[in-house]
From TrEMBL:
The keyword Oxidoreductase does not apply. Keywords: ATP-binding, Nucleotide-binding, Transport. It comes from Candidatus Mediterraneibacter stercorigallinarum. Residues 5-244 form the ABC transporter domain. GO terms for molecular function: ATP binding; ATP hydrolysis activity; transmembrane transporter activity. One of its GO terms (cellular component) is membrane protein complex. This is ABC transporter ATP-binding protein. Transmembrane segments: none annotated. InterPro entries: AAA+_ATPase, ABC_transporter-like_ATP-bd, MacB-like_ATP-bd, P-loop_NTPase.
Length: 255
């Protein structure tokens, strides 16, 4: 099986010499189709920068990002917009929903921008709304929803165009433990039942325990990797905690 995403020697710096900060310092890894991969590290470790580079929101200083044999450096104009809108779906920590649009309108916005037919968009919306249990909030505005409902609406928006890769940046960061567990269970089911490929950045050990593989990043470098075998999620969670202890932290919610 060929990887869906191939990252080679990725680097990104901020600031000017002599006060430069290396957010990414030679990151290399692959993501396989249908994988649920976690990127763990403390705040400032480079997780969000990495996801933003993959989403083509931030331009790396060096290295390569290849998605299904397409190097992001070769994309511009319409091809880049197509990549950002359809190839990857982005799930943000703070939802990033438009307050003046209903849940339905927020979810269908990418479909409208990329000229998906109303029938196709509506069918996909119905499927996702039922699965994510948000049918009853589709005609509400974000301000009328709970945090968990807003994040599940955001998840539906990220999934509406059947992206090749879902990028989730601290998706449970603004949720309480109950809503965080509910969201992670939904993402895990999407991964298993729809074979959705998910790359999630988090410092939450409980959320990470839903992943199949975890890469640990510190100071812009991947220093460790663990995979979940036949063990229970609770046992995998304990293994994650041991690695995070080496980083000096990591939230310890038992989801």
């Amino acid at each position: 099986m060929e990887p869906i995403l191939n990252i080679e020697n990725l680097t990104k710096t901020y600031g000017a010499v002599p006060n430069q900060t290396k957010a990414l310092n030679g990151i290399t890894f692959q993501v396989m189709p249908g994988e649920f991969l976690g990127i763990m590290g403390s705040s400032g470790s480079g997780k969000t920068t990495l996801l933003n580079c993959i989403a083509a929101v931030v331009k790396p200083a060096g290295g390569s990002i290849v998605m299904e044999d397409r190097n992001l450096r070769s994309l511009d104009g319409r091809a880049l917009a197509e990549y950002r809108g359809k190839t990857v779906g982005y799930l943000f920590q703070n939802f990033e929903l438009l307050d003046n649009l209903t849940g339905r309108e927020n979810i269908l916005l990418p479909a409208s921008l990329h000229k998906v037919t109303e029938k196709t968009g509506s069918l996909r919306l119905k499927q996702l709304a039922e699965y994510l249990e948000i049918t009853d909030v589709l005609d509400k505005f974000p301000g009328q929803m709970s945090g968990g409902q807003r994040q599940r609406v955001a998840a539906a928006r990220a999934m509406i165009l059947h992206p090749k890769l879902i990028l989730a940046d601290e998706p449970t960061g603004a949720l309480d433990s109950k809503n965080a567990k509910n969201l992670m269970e939904k993402l895990s089911s999407l991964n298993q039942e729809e074979q959705a490929t998910i790359l999630m950045a988090t410092h939450d050990s409980g959320a990470a325990s839903f992943c199949k593989r975890i890469l640990f990043i510190q100071d812009g470098v991947i220093f460790h990797e663990i995979r979940r075998g036949d063990e229970s999620r609770q046992d995998f969670y304990q293994r994650i905690l041991k690695v995070m202890a080496q980083l000096g932290g990591g939230r310890c919610n038992v989801l």
